[in-house]
């Protein structure tokens, strides 16, 4: 009876979670680490929903039962854990371990608080006749959930700040609408299950991440060749400069020190490109050692300064790159501008070779 009622009440959520698991298994743009994190989140949402329904059954008992405070504590614990795991899919991958530990301290502190509350009466407890009694910290679980929601929003803003406004907005939409639902339940004290909100948000977020990752070069984290071709059409009116870049001696590194050395070099210089360009433009890896930067609404002086900074940092890392750029003039075709930038880059490459600058 319980199983049938559970399936009927959670049919949409179960359909979403099952479909997401199948999509994950077929994904080619998502790393295995991200797939494992997604499966873990699906499992937590599923077990949270079961726990909620079991806790609701425990509410109907005439006397206090140990399982009710245990299930309540587990539900309070799992909501922030779902958000933390959701963040690890993308936005927290590059966060240092120490910082990550600091971020999860509120959750670590909260867990014993929940599971001992039946005796300490701090968050909530149940009387002998099985009545819920709020403690002085009864809103603490909601506060922790809201805290991690804002952490999620903050790191998404940081992660997507170099991308389009739509890509920055969608993660906000995915978290803010479920958060509004949670706040509504909190204000009106409605004992609703949040698993449906979580499953829908996770499904939309995963689809978004899948589409986003299809635009990203998996090695460097830069936008890929397909994104470049799309952006020169969609953002043509915003582009004010094109920079063509070619890394020197990638083949030499691969042949003499192995592909790991070559991959490390590509990662290092790509990180430098992203750091210098930041929000002023977009950086693309369009070939093995070929890169392009599209600048939006910046002047020539800014482009020159950025190239100088990139060259200096790359040389400090013991690598070399040739640069060429062109400013987009009125009525200039993007393909024509890209060809000019390429020509300037090859001139720079020849000058480096002629001047016997280490390649």
Short structural description:
The protein is 65% helix and 9% strand. The chain is α+β, with helices and mostly antiparallel strands. A hairpin with a 5-residue loop joins strand 1 and strand 2 (132-134).
Write the layout of secondary structure elements.
Layout lengths: L1 H8 L1 H16 L5 H28 L7 H22 L8 H19 L1 H4 L3 E3 L5 E3 L5 H21 L4 H23 L7 H19 L11 H10 L4 E9 L2 H8 L1 H19 L3 E5 L4 E7 L3 H17 L4 E7 L6 H21 L5
Helix pairs in contact: 2-3, 2-9, 3-4, 3-9, 4-5, 4-7, 7-8, 8-9, 11-12, 12-13
Overview of this protein structure:
The structure is a single chain. The protein has 359 residues and is α+β, with helices and mostly antiparallel strands. Helices cover 65% and strands 9% of the residues. The protein contains 14 helices and 6 strands. It has helices at residues 2-9, 11-26, 32-59, 67-88, 97-115, 117-120, 140-160, 165-187, 195-213, 225-234, 250-257, 259-277, 300-316, 334-354, and strands spanning 124-126, 132-134, 239-247, 281-285, 290-296, 321-327. The chain has a 4-stranded antiparallel β-sheet, with helices on both faces. The longest helix has 28 residues, at 32-59. The radius of gyration is 26 Å and the shape is elongated. The chain starts with a helix and ends in a 5-residue tail after the last helix. The model has no long low-confidence stretch (mean pLDDT 85).
């Amino acid at each position: 009876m319980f199983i049938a009622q559970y399936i009927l009440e959670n049919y949409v959520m179960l359909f979403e979670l099952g479909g997401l698991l199948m999509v994950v298994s077929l994904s080619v743009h998502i790393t295995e680490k991200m797939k494992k994190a997604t499966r873990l989140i699906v499992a937590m949402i599923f077990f949270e929903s079961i726990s909620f329904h079991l806790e609701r059954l425990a509410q109907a008992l005439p006397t206090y039962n140990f399982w009710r405070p245990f299930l309540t504590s587990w539900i309070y614990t799992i909501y922030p854990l779902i958000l933390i795991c959701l963040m690890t899919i993308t936005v927290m991958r590059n966060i240092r371990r120490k910082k990550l530990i600091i971020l999860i301290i509120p959750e670590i502190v909260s867990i014993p608080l929940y599971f001992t509350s039946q005796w300490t009466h701090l968050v909530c407890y149940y009387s002998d006749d099985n009545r819920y009694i709020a403690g002085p910290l009864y809103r603490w679980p909601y506060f922790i959930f809201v805290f991690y929601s804002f952490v999620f929003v903050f790191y998404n803003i940081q992660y997507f700040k170099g991308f389009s406004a739509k890509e920055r907005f969608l993660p906000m939409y995915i978290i803010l609408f479920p958060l509004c639902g949670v706040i509504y339940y909190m204000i009106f004290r409605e004992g609703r299950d949040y698993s449906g909100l979580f499953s829908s948000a996770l499904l939309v977020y995963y689809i978004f991440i899948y589409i986003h990752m299809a635009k990203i070069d998996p090695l460097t984290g830069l936008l890929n060749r397909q994104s470049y071709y799309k952006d020169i059409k969609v953002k043509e009116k915003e582009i004010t400069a094109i920079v063509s870049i070619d890394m020197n001696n990638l083949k030499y590194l691969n042949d003499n020190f192995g592909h790991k050395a070559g991959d490390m070099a590509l990662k290092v210089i790509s990180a430098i490109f992203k750091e210098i360009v930041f929000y002023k433009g977009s950086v693309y890896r369009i070939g093995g050692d070929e890169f392009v930067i599209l600048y939006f609404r910046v002047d020539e002086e800014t482009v020159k300064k950025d190239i100088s900074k990139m060259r200096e940092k790359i040389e400090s890392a013991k690598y070399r790159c040739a640069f060429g750029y062109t400013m987009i003039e009125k009525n200039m075709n993007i393909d024509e501008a890209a060809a000019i930038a390429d020509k300037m880059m090859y001139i720079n490459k020849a000058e480096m070779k002629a001047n016997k600058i280490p390649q």
